[in-house]
Design a protein that fits this description.
Strand content: 15-25%
Oligomer: single chain
Strand order of the largest sheet: 1-8-3-6
Distance between the termini: 47 Å
Shape: elongated
CATH topology of the largest domain: Jelly Rolls
Number of strands: 12
Number of helices: 9
Length: 234
């Protein structure tokens, strides 16, 4: 495994939430952060763990998920490079509300709640920016819940692929490649359906030319058709 060296101040200066801060403020903030590495599958935190930090993804990807008492997994979100998670902890300091697991080899930058609060007082707009992130999360969670309650499996799966295309899509010849490798079980966990249902539906869409699959990587070939499926409620 090749490790890459990162300058914490540079990482912070490039982040959408913090790049408006001055050099001195970034230097002070960088001194309070911790950089850590997590291999694929490593647990970053579990639901119920102390909520004492917000975490930025420097490299890699992290899944935010919940588990039923029977061990069934539901993926709530996937955070990639430049994204944040655990941000609610900066406001309330309450226990974590979900699990965070590294999807691949991942570097994280942690900002402790107690050390970050002074920056809120000095930069009120920083709190507003972070609130916008929290509100976006609530909207995504609400949409996820509505999908699970009101939409059938094909619609939910199509909406999942379109959502992934917004976060991980790359334009290629003939479509939009989803630059993230998820197993059919993981996709099922993302939309709340079985792996068998995902396998059957993806197979149908591949035969119909809506998607292409190569080594578990999906390319959207007919986005308009998937959008029509996504709008269907039955």
């Amino acid at each position: 495994m090749v490790r890459i060296a990162f300058d914490k101040e540079t990482v912070l200066s490039e982040h959408f939430l913090l790049r408006h801060l001055g050099r001195d403020e970034l230097r002070r903030l960088a001194a309070t952060t911790t950089l850590s590495n997590h291999s694929a599958g490593a647990v970053i935190f579990l639901k119920g763990d102390p909520g004492n930090s917000m975490i930025a993804v420097v490299r890699g990807r992290v899944k935010i998920c919940a588990h039923s008492s029977e061990g069934k997994e539901l993926i709530l979100n996937i955070i990639e490079r430049g994204g944040l998670f655990g941000e609610i902890a900066l406001f309330d300091g309450e226990p974590r509300t979900a699990d965070a697991i590294a999807l691949e080899d991942t570097d994280l930058l942690s900002l402790e709640r107690s050390k970050f609060h002074p920056f809120f007082k000095e930069n009120p707009d920083l709190a507003l920016r972070l609130l916008a992130v929290v509100c976006k999360r609530f909207r995504e969670t609400s949409e996820h819940l509505e999908d699970s309650l009101f939409r059938e499996a094909p619609s939910r799966l199509a909406r999942c692929l379109l959502r992934l295309s917004r976060g991980f899509g790359k334009n290629v010849d003939g479509g939009i490649l989803l630059d993230i490798k998820l197993s059919q079980q993981q996709i099922g966990n993302y939309v709340g359906v079985s792996r068998e249902t995902v396998n059957k539906q993806l197979g149908e869409w591949q035969r119909d030319g809506l998607i292409a699959i190569n080594s578990s990587v999906i390319t959207l070939r007919n986005k308009a058709a998937l959008e029509d499926v996504a709008l269907a409620e039955a």
